[in-house]
Structure formats: C-alpha cells, structure tokens
C-alpha cells in the first residue's frame, strides 16, 4: 500500500514511517499540510494519514481541500493525531475522513488498524 504520511514532529514521523515500512507499505513523507496537499496532487496514494496540528495548513484544511477536489476526493484520509475530544473526532469524520486514530497509538498494530478502517469503508 502506498501511504502519504503528513506529520510535522520528526520523532513521530520517524517511528510511524518505520512501523509502516516494516509492515510492507511504501511511505511518502510530508512535513506540513501544504506539502501534503502538493504531494497528494502530484501522485496517487492508497491512503493519506494526516496530523491535525501542522504548520502552513492544518490537517482539517488539507482534508477539506482534498475532498473538494473531484480528482482527489476518492483518496481515503485517516487522521492520525493527538486531538482526541469527541467534537474533534466528529469534525474530522464530517470533513470526509474515513477514520481517526488518536496518538499515542500502537505502532505494532497501526498497519492492521489502517487496513481495518479501509476495509470497513470499502477503500482497501
């Protein structure tokens, strides 16, 4: 699976990338929301993992722009964030995300959780 990981914290980006690559996925990194949007516009991904709190463009804005674009709206988005209040989860899902994973998450189960979310939403 080809995954776009949009995460601005270097340590979290590093361990998340390692966990996903160890599970056999190809991971493309973006350090902020604008870079994530540009990468999504340039290549196809099986899933986009978005942090909510990022510089230049936050994850909610990125998701909104992706879901507003007829060429990109089909790419599944999963939020991967520390923002865990119920209204934040609901806002992310309302924005068009297919899933919401709260940090800290189980690195060893991350790939399995992503696959389960995608299967539940018919995106796998």
Automatic annotation (TrEMBL):
Residues 2-118 form the Response regulatory domain. It holds the Pfam family Response_reg. Keywords: DNA-binding, Phosphoprotein, Transcription, Transcription regulation, Two-component regulatory system. One of its GO terms (cellular component) is cytosol. The keyword Chaperone does not apply. It comes from the Bacteria. GO terms for biological process: regulation of DNA-templated transcription. The keyword Transcription applies. This is Response regulatory domain-containing protein. It comes from Kouleothrix aurantiaca.
